[in-house]
Amino acid sequence: MKYPMVDLKGQYLKIKPEIDAAIADVLENTAFIKGPAVKRFEKQLADYLQIEHVISCGNGTDALQLALMALDLQPGDEVITTSFTFIATAEVIALLKLKPVLVDVLPGTYNIDPEAVQKAITPRTKAIIPVHLFGQTADMQRIMEIAKAHQLYVIEDTAQALGADFTHPDTGKTQKAGTIGTIGCTSFFPSKNLGAYGDGGAVFTHDDQLAERLRMLANHGMKVRYYHDYVGINSRLDTLQAAILAVKLPHLDEYAQARQKAAEFYNWAFADCKKIQTPQTAPFTTHVFHQYTVVLDESIDRQALMKHLKDQGIASAVYYPVPLHLQKAYRDKRYGEGDFPVTEQLSRTVLSLPIHTEMTTDMLEEISQAVLNFIHQTL
Ligand SMILES: *Cc1c(COP(=O)(O)O)cnc(C)c1O
Fold this sequence. Notes:
The structure is a single chain. The protein is 39% helix and 14% strand. It has a seven-stranded mixed sheet, sandwiched between helices. A three-stranded antiparallel sheet has the order 10-11-12. The chain is of the alpha/beta class and 379 residues long. The chain has helices at 8-14, 16-29, 36-49, 60-70, 88-95, 114-120, 140-150, 208-217, 239-248, 252-270, 302-311, 341-349, 361-378; strands spanning 53-57, 78-82, 99-103, 125-129, 153-157, 165-167, 174-176, 183-187, 201-205, 276-277, 292-296, 350-353. The chain has two domains: 8-250, Aspartate Aminotransferase, domain 2, CATH 3.40.640; 252-378, Alpha-Beta Complex (Aspartate Aminotransferase, domain 1). It is built from 13 helices and twelve strands. Pyridoxal-5'-phosphate is lined by residues 59-61, 85-86, 88-89, 131, 157, 159-160, 187, 189, 199, 201. The site of pyridoxal-5'-phosphate has 15 residues, from helix 4 and helix 5.
């Protein structure tokens, strides 16, 4: 593929000497589990996010699971989340025998609809998991208001929006995505905005007690070795990955700027095309463009467009083709086709184009032209 969705190699080459030195240092020290780089990176990320505690773990899915485990929920307790997200969000709810309650998203931002959350609350509701999809935050002011009124926990799934800023419309106060709710979760999967060279994840919280519990849960429920206070899991960030992430974190904002520039180009290129709805950024958030996702007019054959792009060496992807409530493993008498019309419409019409830190104007020009050519030729 001439133009893949991400360019991890190009990004690596720009910081190769630092990365290679960091890896060599870990190999030299052989402290592969819980080596000094892990603590160092956790502190560095806590400073960046302006939050008291960062606890690293094995991956973003584990981060979500740890967050739910730390909150002491009972089987059958309800957790509200969006029907339009990566499966991990609902998976961990189900694995812990909690009840995922799905709600629809907003058509412009593809993020969870706070009013739908409000309507889904029952006496068994214990938590809300907003997902900051594709790189911008959900409406955290409204979600926190609802959570406060009903005494609910809020777990932010920040896997796609690390580094995004949320500004409270009422107070003007700005906070990093993932630091507004009870616990924030992120992923360092290689293609995420802050990507490791393997799996990785983290949870963050302002709460000292929760932090201690999260740290223990991620390490077999123990604080003192071989004394287990909780039923935990084994989920740790490798020292190697922490060392790599520590090199990459200082570049995160410049990576976001590169993605934003690419998104601006696409927005400009598609501005006059009525068959393409470009992504809208809500006024209370910055957008770090983990994905650049457009909505195609129903008249456009998405499959044919993707093939047209592929024939020219241009990657494209559908995030996500099947809404959570229509996934085979999550079929439930409670839900059926037509329940979440916005999500279902998006699943049929969204298309994500290549966006990463190494894009050039020539690339963007060629990709957007290829999209527009297909649309003009099918009119
Ligand atoms: C990537 C992702 C996860 C899971 O992260 P992993 O590190 O792959 O386990 C969870 N939620 C969302 C929204 C994601 O994009």
